[in-house]
Design a protein that fits this description.
By secondary structure, the protein is an alpha/beta fold. The chain is built from seven helices and nine strands, in the order βββαββαααβαβαββα. A six-stranded mixed β-sheet has the order 5-6-7-3-8-9, sandwiched between helices. Helix 3 packs antiparallel against helix 4 and helix 6 packs across helix 7.
Length: 250
Amino acid sequence: MNKPLLEIKNVSKIYSDEVGYKIHLLENISFSLTKGKVTTFLAPKGSGKTSLLNIIAGLEKSTTGSVIKNCNKVAFIPTEPSSFPWLNVEENIKFASKLGNAEIKKIITLVGLEGYEDHFPNNKSEGFRFRIALGRALAYQPEIIVIDEPFNNLNSTTREEIYLMLRDVIEETDVTIVLGSTNISEAIFLSDRIIIMKKKPGEIIDEIEISFTGKRDINTITGNDFINYRNKIEEIFYKKLNKHLYRFSV
């Protein structure tokens, strides 16, 4: 059996503020990542999921526990996707990449930026900048791409377009994607697996596998399978937590 790309074992995170008060942000987090799958951490704000994503990406250390990586490269896309305003789309995507021009062109097409190669990202929408960030991440050729909740400020039409584009990327590549989200519908549509967390401290309370017949499209959201998954997630929160304490996007 192949080793998981990454294993998190009994990870906890404790912060101390300026007066020495300890904040127990994450508690006893354990999971592993399988190649080619999309795993979403669905959790309310304040659950420590951003710190957890930073730990996965190697940008932050845990207080206790271990992180075992069986991969070489992890890319990270933050909540506000970054780009270099002095470089055009093509230059941004191939920045620090060893891929040839033909491969870069394929990535540009895959993320929906064909015809925009000479455009500059300054004053462009967040959706446009996310496409650039995702393209640059793909050009880096990582085994894992970590994405921290970048869709919150998008309007509904742009968000749907980004969801469909991201699913196309997932189906066309074998990259493993890790998402952080507070949006139940987003998590169901994009994921193969959802890990559900609570806050104070951030702990894993359950997880579910997601599978749909056929290619996911915008009609998937109104299908019976989608509704059943949503009901199952809501039931988890009703049974395991006082749901009114947690405000989730839908």
